[in-house]
């Protein structure tokens, strides 16, 4: 039988267009060791690990006439140098130059005639650093059989690349006649599949919603209970093809101190800092602000043991996550009250019926929350038009140093894709005592995303100064 894309994975391909590419990104910054870490070493490291990721050497092959969903086939012309690319920043090699490059790379759709991933080795950073920028299409990564490339090449200890022999060879792709025969055979067994696939290819929103609902179950069912549309504002607009990217670097210890003084969880404090920043950003845009003003965020979260508050995978309950729609109280001027409102709102989302196994969530992409944003928004579009203003992902990261070869990773930032009518997505992750924010914005609608990043830092300082 052919290795056919699932209905959900195929939907990512059908719904993608030139201005809303559906790949998830990551930015990792490394210190170069004394003996160096160069493009050739990265290429060697990636080639060593590809044997664990068969999907990374496969491409999508469409079935004639869209009689069935596409299939995965080995890329007989696989070229590792095409996928792992070399780039360099001009002097002085500042972080701002790096993140401008990230924005431009993330705005470009990938070539569907090749395996759907790219990695960029970026040299020329100040202080002898290098960066790795990855792009992985959400149709490709299911989190179970295939993980994001960066996850596979990072280790908890420095590694020396050992010699190896690559014995991979491409399997022959099915012929056109075989693709058609397989599709006809499946259609006989499941007559509705043909109609469903044609509707999805044509962009039928209802068909897409059904696919998403089947894949994520209770999450989308929960979203369907939301009738009231999200508040209007500058965050919801038809996005352009350009992107801007900015980051925030904060200390995990600051969140711990605020938690000890004011209660709540670390995630509540992350959301409160973002809320304070959004308030100031909206005011800077001249948005009229009343006390009850809110911004609605889709916030998928890992489910932790009751006494676990750290950004760690150790306390995950049965490997589960929940997706919450949270009203961020941007109209509240008091930072302590903002945090209290958010903590109360998050506690209201403790119904175990909303829990979704992390494996099911990961079926919708390498960074599951980012995928939830784009798919749930389109599913919701079939019945409510607009149910949330932005997505905020918070994915726990390791609290020990990680290495690519012998190069130590010092920073890591998620890059969450934008949906068609949402101009901002915020990814948050923790790593080795720090909490990192990646703010991905539309270049026209949120050109001042750098100001918003500064406002996140200021809002966190405001929370710190509230009681201690």
From TrEMBL:
Pathway: Glycerolipid metabolism; triacylglycerol biosynthesis; Lipid metabolism
Reaction catalyzed: an acyl-CoA + a 1,2-diacyl-sn-glycerol = a triacyl-sn-glycerol + CoA
Gene Ontology CC terms, in alphabetical order: plasma membrane
Residue ranges of every copy of the O-acyltransferase WSD1 C-terminal domain listed in the record: 319-464
Pfam families, sorted: WS_DGAT_C, WS_DGAT_cat
Domain named O-acyltransferase WSD1-like N-terminal: residues: 5-270
InterPro entries in the record: Acyl_transf_WS/DGAT, O-acyltransferase_WSD1-like, O-acyltransferase_WSD1_C, O-acyltransferase_WSD1_N
Enzyme nomenclature, EC number: 2.3.1.20
GO molecular function, one term: diacylglycerol O-acyltransferase activity
Similarity field: Belongs to the long-chain O-acyltransferase family.
PANTHER family, alphabetized: O-ACYLTRANSFERASE (WSD1-LIKE) FAMILY PROTEIN, WAX ESTER SYNTHASE_DIACYLGLYCEROL ACYLTRANSFERASE 4-RELATED
The protein's name: Diacylglycerol O-acyltransferase
């Amino acid at each position: 039988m052919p290795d056919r894309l699932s209905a959900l994975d195929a939907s990512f391909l059908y719904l993608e267009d030139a201005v809303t590419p559906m790949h998830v990104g990551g930015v990792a910054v490394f210190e170069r060791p004394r003996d160096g870490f160069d493009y050739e070493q990265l290429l060697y490291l990636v080639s060593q690990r590809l044997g664990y990721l068969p999907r990374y050497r496969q491409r999508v092959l469409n079935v004639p006439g869209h009689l069935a969903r596409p299939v995965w086939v080995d890329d007989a012309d696989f070229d590792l140098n095409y996928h792992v690319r070399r780039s360099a920043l001009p002097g002085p090699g500042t972080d701002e130059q790096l993140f401008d490059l990230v924005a431009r790379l993330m705005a470009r759709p990938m070539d569907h005639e090749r395996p759907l991933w790219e990695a960029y080795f970026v040299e020329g950073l100040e202080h002898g650093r290098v960066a790795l920028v990855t792009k992985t299409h959400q149709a490709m990564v299911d989190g179970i059989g295939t993980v994001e490339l960066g996850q596979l090449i990072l280790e908890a200890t420095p590694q020396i690349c050992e010699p190896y022999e690559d014995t991979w060879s491409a399997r022959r792709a099915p012929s056109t006649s075989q693709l058609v025969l397989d599709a006809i055979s499946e259609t006989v067994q499941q007559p509705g599949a043909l109609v469903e696939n044609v509707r999805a290819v044509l962009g039928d929103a209802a068909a897409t919603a059904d696919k998403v609902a089947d894949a994520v179950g209770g999450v989308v069912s929960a979203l369907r209970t939301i009738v009231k549309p999200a508040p209007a504002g500058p965050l919801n607009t038809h996005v352009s093809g350009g992107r801007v990217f900015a980051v925030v670097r904060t200390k995990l210890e600051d969140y711990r101190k605020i938690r000890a003084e004011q209660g709540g969880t670390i995630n509540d404090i992350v959301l409160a800092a973002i809320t304070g920043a959004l308030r100031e950003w909206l005011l800077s845009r001249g948005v009229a602000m009343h006390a009850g003003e809110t911004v609605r965020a889709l916030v998928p979260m890992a489910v932790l043991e009751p006494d676990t508050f750290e950004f760690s995978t150790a306390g995950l309950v049965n490997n589960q996550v929940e997706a919450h729609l949270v009203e961020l109280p941007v109209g509240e001027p008091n930072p302590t009250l903002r945090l209290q409102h958010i903590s109360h709102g998050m506690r209201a989302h403790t119904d175990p019926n909303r829990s979704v196994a992390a494996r099911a969530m990961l079926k919708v992409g390498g960074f599951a929350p980012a995928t939830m944003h784009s798919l749930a928004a389109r599913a919701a579009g079939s019945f409510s038009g607009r149910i949330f203003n932005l997505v905020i992902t918070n994915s726990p990261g390791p609290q020990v140093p990680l290495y690519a070869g012998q190069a130590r990773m010092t920073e890591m930032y998620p890059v969450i894709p934008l949906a068609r009518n949402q101009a901002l997505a915020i990814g948050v992750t923790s790593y080795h005592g720090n909490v990192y924010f990646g703010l991905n914005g539309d270049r026209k609608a949120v050109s001042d995303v750098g100001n918003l990043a500064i406002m996140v830092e200021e809002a966190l300082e405001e929370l710190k100064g509230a009681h201690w």
